[in-house]
Amino acid sequence: MSRLFRLLVLCIGLSAGILAIASVLGGLWLATLAALLIGAGWLAAERQDWPHAAAPAFVGLLIVAAFAILAGLSSFWIAPAGLFALAGWDLSRFRQRLRAAGERPTAALEALHVRRLLWVCGVGFILAELANLIHFQLRFVLVFILGLASFLALYILAARLARPAGEQPVEKTP
Amino acid sequence: MKNQLLLLSALIFGLLLTGLLTLQGGLLALALPLLVYLAAAFWFNPEKPLLNAARRLDTEWVAENAPATITLQVTNQGQALEEVALSAPLPVNVRFLKGEVAAFASLPAGETLSLTHTFQALRGEYRPPVVQVTANETFGLFGHTLSLDAPCQLAVRPQTLTVRSAKIRPPQTRGFAGPIPARQSGVGLDFFSLREYQPGDPQRQINWRIAARYEHDLFTNIFEQERVADVGIILDSRRQVDVVVGGESLFEHSVRAAATLSAAFLKDGNRVGLLVYGGSIQRVFPGYGKVQRYRILRTLSKAHTGHNYALENLGHLPTRAFPSHSQVVLISPLYLDDVPVLIQLRSQGYAVLVISPDPLDFEARRLPATRESELAERIARAERNFLMQRIRRVGVQVVEWRVNEPLDSSLHRTLEAAPTLHRLRMVAR
């Protein structure tokens, strides 16, 4: 078992485990079951090298996390679960890309990736936990404007990404 | 890359929207690590890479099914790239043997990424497709995809079979000594005729057995000169005469026969030309030696069947490509409509040899043996025998070649039988 795979298993386990424990403590049996099932399914898929399982599992765990927060659980525990799910999704995609390396040494690539992921997760964790500590009231107008801005931003991004790339120009090399 | 970015953005915006609408700060906190991840990926988004790709072949000219190795080198002439995914697809219809056709690595500035792969291919000319390069940051969300042109060309020559020197007898030969009987007396090995002894004739050429029958006369043996000849090879590439069964084409056997015969004739010192007649007309003007062999094989490596309404029959055969009274070798499965053209060639004074790969045998071997197919083969065989008979009657030598048998045995069976038949006809007259 490679170091990367061990890390991936750890991330999936922590994400599903934290969610399940928090849900059990909050009495959300359905969320517990969903988190455990998604976690187990994701682990099984990674063992079988199914490349398309990571994205649905990541989305599934985030939905369970969001549901738990909406149900009144503290986001102090739930946010790290989302963070580990994100790390799991990223590592799974990285493993897929690494397959193309074949016999080439990948230690440097892995080290760079893991280092940057740790940084991002660290910063993300601190910001998420800080956000949990900050509480302020928003007016309806502000919420409406922010919501509208988010919706528009998403719409513009989706439209831009969905635009066909067209014929890829071939670059001549001397 | 696009889908993953869209998924992540949708999740972030979804969480933000839900958080704002439900006034749940926890959801916003849940979205924050995702936002940081997206921001980090965007921050490390590489600039458009400046790459230079070059392909090198270990040989540009290989035999059929022989391994060929391509080395692809991609040099980074711009900034360092964290992740580079390289895909160097092989040309279609080649068989991958070993090596790597894709790579994933980091590429520092000025460094080169090399990829080597070995493959084998059937006869033809091959140009590998463009190289696809994707350079992205380490999270794989932002990056650039490039298509790099690294042209190279591989020509796979047709397989040549083993044949002995073919005994042809064209009406006219060239001035240089060679292996082909010239129908003229002179210095040679084969007996040609007798004449009365003339002073100056070497004694060893006196035919003492004939001289013993006469009291005062002596007779001298005369030998036949042996010279090189002009040989024109015509390869029939019309699609309508080709037979393709189970992905195997009879035309490939015709190409092999053309390659084999041209190599054999050139080895004997003859002047050989080639004409590929079918979808278009490709020709190699007559010439000698190894360079001519290369030219012919190069043309044969590119030859393919085709359809052209103007060239549906052999009527437009540019016979002027070959010197008059030379040997013409037509390699074709033959059609009933081709007989008048062969008659015309004979009447123009060419010695015509037809190598006809047997399409019936080729097809019958690959079809299930049923009563109907056997009956159909018998009818077709009768038709073909009739065709061959008509061709032989006009003085064309025909080699009926069953492609699963060696060409050499079929060729020599026909060529060695021909003088005997000729002699029998002379006796009958």
Residue windows where pLDDT falls under 50 for at least 5 positions of chain A: none
What is the tally of helical segments of chain A? Answer: 6
What is the helical fraction of chain A, as a range of percent? over 70%
Most extensive chain-chain interface = A-B, 64 and 55 residues
Strand composition percent of chain A: under 5%
N-C termini distance of chain B = 87 Å
- What does the largest sheet of chain B look like? 6 strands, mixed
Quaternary structure state of the chains depicted: heterodimer
Count the E strands of chain B. Answer: 21
Task: From the 3D structure, determine the CATH topology of the largest domain in chain B.
Answer: Rossmann fold
**Structural class, judged by helices and strands of chain A?**
mainly alpha
| Strand/helix succession of chain B | HHEEEEEEEEEEEEHEEEEHEEHEHEHHEH
Radius of gyration of chain B, whole Å? 34 Å
**Strand order across the biggest sheet of chain B?**
18-17-14-19-20-21
Unreliably modeled segments of chain B: none
Order of helices and strands of chain A: HHHHHHE
Structural notes for this entry:
The complex is a heterodimer of chains A (174) and B (429). Chain A has 174 residues and is an all-alpha fold. Chain A is 77% helix and 2% strand. Chain A has one domain (3-158). Chain B has three domains: 51-157, Sandwich (Immunoglobulin-like), CATH 2.60.40.10; 177-227, no CATH class; 230-417, Rossmann fold, CATH 3.40.50. Helix content of chain B is 32%, strand content 32%. Chain B contains nine helices and 21 strands. Chain B has helices at residues 2-22, 25-43, 208-211, 250-267, 289-302, 339-347, 359-364, 371-393, 407-428; strands at 51-57, 61-63, 68-76, 81-87, 94-99, 102-107, 112-121, 124-126, 131-136, 143-149, 154-157, 177-196, 219-227, 230-236, 244-245, 248-249, 271-277, 281-287, 327-331, 351-357, 397-401. Chain B is elongated, with a radius of gyration of 34 Å. Chains A and B meet through helix 3, helix 4, helix 5, helix 6 and strand 1 of A and helix 1, helix 2, strand 1, strand 4 and strand 6 of B. Strand 1 (170-172) of chain A pairs parallel with strand 10 of chain B, so a sheet runs across the interface.
